[in-house]
Amino acid sequence: MDRFFCFLCLIALAASLGGNAGCSRQHYRKKADQEVYSVLRQGNTDPRWKVNDYRITPDAASRMYDPYNPDREPMPTDDPAAHRKMQSAGGMKGSRNWYEHGCTSHVENPRWRQYLLVNEKGEIPLDKDKAVELARLHASDYQSRLEDLYLAAMGVSRERYRFDVQFLGSNDLTYKAAGENSSTLTNNAKVGASRRLATGATWVVEAANKITWTLTGSGSWDPSTVISASVTQPLLRGAGRKIVLEELTQRERNFLTELRKMVLFQQGHYTRLVTGSTPQLRDVSIPGGSGFYQLLEQQILIQNQRQNIIGLEDSLNRFIELFDAGQSELIQVEETRQTLLNAQSRLVGQINEYQSRVEGYVRSLGLPPDLKVSISDPLLEQFQLTSPTLTVLMEEVGGYLAIMREKNRALPENFREATSTIVRRAAGEISILNQDLDMLQKSMPDRIASLQSLESVLAERIAGGERIAPEVYDTATFTRRVEALRNEDIPRNLARLQASFTLLNLIAETEEETLREMIRNPHTFDTPVQEALQLLNLGDSAGADADAHLSAQQQELAKIAEQLDALQDALQEALDIELPQAPVRDEPMSEAERVLAELRQRDGYRDWVHRAFSVFQNELVTLSLMQTRTRLQAMTLMPVSVTPEEAFQTASEHRLDWMNQRSELVDAWRQIDFTADRLKGFLSLRFDGNLGTADGSGVKFSKNNSDLSVTLNWDSPLNRYDQMMDYRASQIDYQRARRAYYTYVDSVQAELRNTLRNVQMNQINFEINRNTVLVGTIRVDVMQLRLEQPPQRGARIDTNASQQLINALDGLTNSQNDLLRTWVAYQTQRMLLDCYMGTMTLDERGRWVDPGIIGSSPHTIRELPLAVPIPVPIIETPRLNRRYVEE
Prior knowledge:
Structural class: alpha+beta
């Protein structure tokens, strides 16, 4: 019974010790974070590669946030077939504890959408800064880089811990029954500490206590305590700080590398998100995808295409009017119509492509593609060469013109009120043009300085035989163009636009019947209207009846047609018979029939209003061209004038991946000594000492119960095959690292030179494209003026006029698109240059700090701190020694 009672006590004590053997999961998780974040705080001090936020726990607003207890994670939804393996494995019943933490159907944070700020349409307003903010919050690749940094710091903490004092404690409680009359209970307890030193020495101090209770007979107990200490110092293999601290040193260097990689990733991630171009950075993988610039570029391309469609619709209307008047060919109408339909088809394709790019971009931010976003940013507003409000206005005027052409369709009931509103909105566009002129005036010094800089860049190219038109870089040509635009072209076109306002105001303010009477009697128009008609080249034709628009030949044919109708009626009445209905003919009507049908459908009021709106639409198109030319001349580029040699020197001092490459080269070099150490024999010196108790109390120590020993341990290096191979492999690895290093340096130099060439090429192309757009606006303006002055009565316009106008409109659209693409390419290359030079800086919110001018003078390159150089003795390069040459 006594034995059974002791056995139960033993089980209870063991269970008690086991239940309190460790702290909770939460304690260890928080302790691990505390240790790792301490390493991160200590190592994250250099401003050149400082990471502002290195926490790996996502924000509560993030899609990646885990709302559940990380130490008691519920089981996510499993595959049914695979889940049966958890319930039964190998024919054996599985555990029931799989469900002890509960189950969940959510993998992502179920509440992350609640934190999104949306507009009244349910869309997220997205500019480039907001996109970067969302990516840092939701992008999984960004989170993975933070976790890589955390794990690197964890490796440092592990190695540092190995050189801390290590405490140990253990207890063995043993119950032993021997036969029927002998049973003992023994408790062995140990406590101690050990530490590894940087020299390779290890010391251990331990106290062991043993108590044995005899549970049979009279009962007795026998305690004893021993304190022992030992010190071991290797003398050959494994000795010295170079070898002992190797692993810790490597972990520290790896952590520094990961810090730099994190900063490089942030720079590359920002560059990719904004420009869509992925920087080529060593050992930093950045996923590709569309950039914010590309989305804005696509928006402008769509707007340019819409502007082109408006121009084609206006051209189609003109050719239809000329065809109706017998002054153009049907082929010209249909050719223009076909081009319009093709342009509309391209617009549909562009919109579809834009929507796909937006969804892809949203996914690159770590968000689902069904999320509605509104892309907008003032960055590319300068490439809206026509204000969006003017584009919408021209579309609405085009809609009214389409209604007016349908003879059987009545004008809208609110037509006069809408006309008044249209005039007010058009007047607002003049104010926008005045603002554009002010912006052009302010940008003149920068434009002139940019042209002068470009001229100096082109001087060498021109001297080498390249032929570049002087107007691309000539400041005098630029000044002359601006003066002509401001003092001649815009005032002339505004005067015509004001004249068209006069006609539309007359329509809006005059009752229809009153205006009809005035149209039949053009002399009743007041002086401002008469002057407006003369200025717009309408003259009396705008107030005459529809018959006045027909040629004498057409009028004569109409009279003959009327006489034939009268003769047909008289013949039917005389014979008192019903003539058969004329069969439906597929062939076109005769000229007399067409003229007569046109005369019967003529409405003097409607025709006059149509002419006034048509002229107004023409002047709006001209206004858009004036806006284009003004905004075009105001555009500037931030200059880049650094030489390849200066960029390379700057990169060698500031580029973080270059620093990492130097570090990796030295790491490979260090491995030679580390592997060479393993070729040595093992020789160590060990000191051991023990001090025990002298009596049965277990606490009184005696020197008579102590000992001290010194051991010299020698292991000869007779078998070092593996170590020999590792040593030779480390030498080969170092030679590979050397080649990889200077190959990397060559690639950096090539990247810089290529980037600078691209910068210069885009700078030149931008000015060329600027002139191309200018020429395009002049071509469109000339063709429209030619159509505003139709040929004399009875004559026809040039058969090539439609194709020339179509080419002019397409050429203008294409040149505008090329200008936009060139600017985006220039800005992209400029950001890449800042990244490749190692001078790229992000603020605390992860946004690029634009350095402004990147030039050759010291003040134009962002000042960044340089590392204090470590004094290293210089070893002269030895002459070739035949001893180092293999046979």
